[in-house]
Amino acid sequence: MSAGTVLVVGGGPAGLAAAAEAAREGARVTLVERDTVLGGILGQCVHDGFGIEMFGEALTGPEYVDRMLDDLEGLDVRFMVDTMVLDLGDGPVARIVGPEGYEVLRPEAVIVATGCREKSFGSLAVSGSRPAGIFTAGTAQRLVNVEGLTVGQRAVILGSGDVGLIMARRLVLEGAQVECVVERMPYPGGLPRNVSQCLNDFQIPLLLEHTVTQVLGRARLEGVVIAEVDSRGEAVAGSERVVACDTLLVSVGLIPENELLGGTSAVLDRASRGPVVDQMLMTLSPGVFSCGNSLQVHDLADWAGREGQTAGRAAAAWARGEQEGCERVPVMACAGLRYVAPQVLLAGLPATLRFRVTEPFRRPCVSVKRDGMVLAELRFDHLAPSELASLEVPGFEVSGGPVEVCVDAPAC
Amino acid sequence: MRPPAEALCICCPTGCRLRLRREEGSVAVEGAGCERGREYAQVELVTPQRTFTGTVRVSGGRKRVVPVRCDGPVPKQALLEVARRAAGVCIPAPIVRGQRLAEDVLPGIALVATAVVDAV
Hints:
Largest sheet of chain B: 5 strands, mixed
Strand order of the largest sheet of chain A: 5-2-1-9-21
Helix content of chain A: 10-25%
Largest sheet of chain A: 5 strands, parallel
Oligomer: heterodimer
Number of strands of chain B: 10
Number of helices of chain B: 2
Largest interface: A-B, 31 and 29 residues
């Protein structure tokens, strides 16, 4: 069997890991990255905490990228930076353009590792004018950590996801005053250790069950109106107060970036916002694989990297011509689960299921069943929507109904 | 026996909730999921430490700032002071990873580059 060609789209933690693994499996790999440097979002993440799972060390974003590039040393990977994939089609086929010109590529497999984008302020329908001084947290992170700019002197942060928490600390260390972090849910959206070392360490108040209802100012932000929210998420009348500020950072959600899959027969899962995949991470377009934040939003770069490795191995096998004709079984996510990925299982092969719950659970039991038989079961100490969790499922025999994944509390 | 203090371990994303009790000169730790957490608890109760990361200005480089870290743990209370000192630093490019950019931002603690910046 001859080695096949694999195209990786995206040079962030998932794409780099996928390229390394595919190359180690003997594929001829091309990695296309639209930025002028490799590393993806990690280039702007100057804080540490990356690599604990992958390398056993707490590294900063740039240091993690460096390790991944060391890993790629000597492997047969052609890097094309400053190069954009214009579109993908079934085949697969990719049309790209960059400093070397326009090219049509027909690799045996494509791995889409295009990461995710931030939910914008515009989608929140907050009333007021649109003054300067309102940024998504990731944009502010790029401006401060890469462009070396100051975004403002006095900030409010809307949303307690990790990017917002990390930027709260960053702004304080850059000399700004951070008034508060406003979170509409009754629990924080980011990791507990980020609440601790980004907010508690600097006595920044975390206002749970609050939201921003209005922004004030015309040319430049002058303040925001904050209100309590009730259990339906509606602002409580009479609870409004004004917080003076010149900067609002918005950290209210990440959306997997899957524009490129639109030209293929891949289908997106509305709940995960990534493509429907099997446990080999192949989409419904044969030879098109997905991994990292574009498949599902990850909490840790390390996990995006692990997923990239799975996709890299699988894509290399596909490119070699090892194309399984297994029975495909749908996976149903029951009440309490926002989504489960993969959404399809190939019978006879083991799988790693990843999922998020819709609300916090204490001591929940997550079970995977088929036709009344339990295939796998795991009790967790706690689960929250902000934590991507996983569960291993052994291969099961053919012939039967769909696989159901359920969460029950109290314990099973 | 003093009542237990609570701390959240920041060593890894799990975030174990630690309960600490000072007993006859030593600290008893409950709730730690691993040895790193137990070690973290011992230090956290007495002299809380953190990792400092940030950026410093670059002159004559392809980028305006370079990401940095301190080459040792920093007392929690000194984070802002280290940040203020980092704000006064400007280093000429080229800069290599691991390069020492400023000595003694705190006694014995240096600022070290975590990325490369090429000269223009």
